[in-house]
Here is the input.
Amino acid sequence: MDLRQLRYFVTVADELNFSRAAEKLHMSQPPLSHQIKALEDELGVELLYRTRREVKLTDAGRVLLKHARSLFDQVDVAVKSTVKAAAGDTGVLRLGMATSAVFNVMPQMLDAIRTRFPSVEVIVADMESKEQIRHVAQDKLDIGFIHATPQGAGMQHAELFSEPYAAVLPAGHPLADREPLTLADLADVPMVAFSREHAPALSDALIATCLNAGFHPNIAHTARHPLTVLQMVSVGLGVALVPHSFAHTAFGGVRFRHLEGDSGHIRIEAIWHDNHPSELVQRVIAEVILPAARLPAPQA
Here is the structure.
């Protein structure tokens, strides 16, 4: 039994007339009758009761018709899904996000992707920048959103966002209410910083920012995760410099303060690899990522 024979049977069952069914199938009646008889012989059951006046479905024929229609519906879905996948209209998109990107880049990116590709399943992972670079290179992520400019053959990137640092201080810290507060005011204050081992881009950017302000940061403690940094600040271990968007966390026990003057900036870049993009990834890059990158870089 093959799909062609099933298609013949469904057409005859719908028409209950071999002549009309043959005309609909663009074939003559004898070959059609032969195919239906061959299907019945293969199954060992009678599917159609035939007389000179009428054609009726047997009980076995009604059962096969029900399942055959379901099968053809599934085949139709499979064909349409395959065509969509080839055109990049469906599939799974794996995204990596640096934590601060969750507040500023991810909402806009997800809205744009869902609008243009409503049938695409998006999977997002909160991941450090260097881990994203490794996963994109290994085809474990399709697109990453990171703080660092990636290195390596085939790695592509586009800057999407730039924001200044904000100071985070314990709620009762003497500098928490200073107006204005500048980066230089933090010169001698113990700091909590991101571990360079886990977040080298953020660690290096913080040191460079402080050096540009005329001092070397007094890094007393380090942490791997942003929430750990905020928790360490809240218990009085020091102050921290974090991307300004972290203020959206409304974390208890700390004060987020805007810094007057040049406090440096943290970039968020989209990354992808030339060797791996599927049709879907190529379209997302062309229709969402690159147009966003061409806009003037937003400042927080």
User: Anything to note?
Assistant: The CA atoms of residues 2 and 39 lie 9 Å apart. The longest strand covers residues 155-170.
